[in-house]
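User: Some background: our group keeps a shared notebook of sequences we're curious about, and every so often someone picks one and asks for a predicted structure to add to the entry. Today it's my turn. The entry only has the sequence so far, pasted here. Could you supply the structure so I can complete it?
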Amino acid sequence: MNKYKLAKTISVLTNPPIITIPLFLIICIVLSFENGGFDFFKFIQMELISLIFASLLPMAIIVFWAKKINTDNDISNREDRFVPLIVGIVSYFIGFIVCLFLNVSNFLALLLLCYSVNTGVVLIFTIWWKISVHTTGLSGPVAALILLLGPIGAIFAILYPIVIWSRVLLKKHTMAQAVTGGVQGFFLTVLEIYLFSHLLNMPLNGLVSLEESILYILAIIATPVVLGILSYVNLSNKKIIFYISQAVFLILFYFLSPFNVFAIFVVICLTSILISYWAGEEFVWFNVLNS
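Assistant: Of course. Here's the predicted structure to add to the notebook entry:
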């Protein structure tokens, strides 16, 4: 399989309505453990809600709309994305209402509300800029897993630089659009979960603290953001600047954060570097590390 075919496969599998299926499955499994036991009926309720409103309905409208306007399933033209985004906002919000009505899980309800709000933010961006829905759609559930599982949830963020590579290589997004989609998705989801929990008086127990969650996010985005910025600037010593910045981050995360956060930074940093060298000259990060 050549790199373009691999990138296309990754792009298909990480399409937001598709990547939500395994990630929401994990979220629903975690939320189903209560008082030392597994509530199977609660799991089925949550899984059906997430599958219908976070995956099947958004996926159906994407396929329908793509066929109607005769375009690809990525709906690559920015101006054609408004209808599926609006339907997605409505679908996620209905899922939020259904969760409230059935009283199945405050966390799942708030996560679907976050999805609705974050898709609204993407819709606003789309008015003038084609921010990556792929990296936004990945970062939302990964942020939720960080809140639930800490470092175990954060390890799923290894997909973030991989998705950036696939979307940029396929010329579906610029580097800035791909990186920014993830950054806003990570931060908005974590901040909104805590904010909506407070505003709507929907208590959540056992979550990773807001401060530690933000540290995980900073560890995840640090290397892709630096590589992204350096891919735009015209300097002759980008490689030196990059490795100095990573050494600084390494020291800061080691001394100023929990070890698990430091470990996540190391994993994402190494993944980003390996992708850069493996991708070769067709990917701009390779040129950053060889300047």
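Suggested note for the entry: Residues 40-68 form the longest helix (29 residues). The two ends are 29 Å apart (CA to CA).
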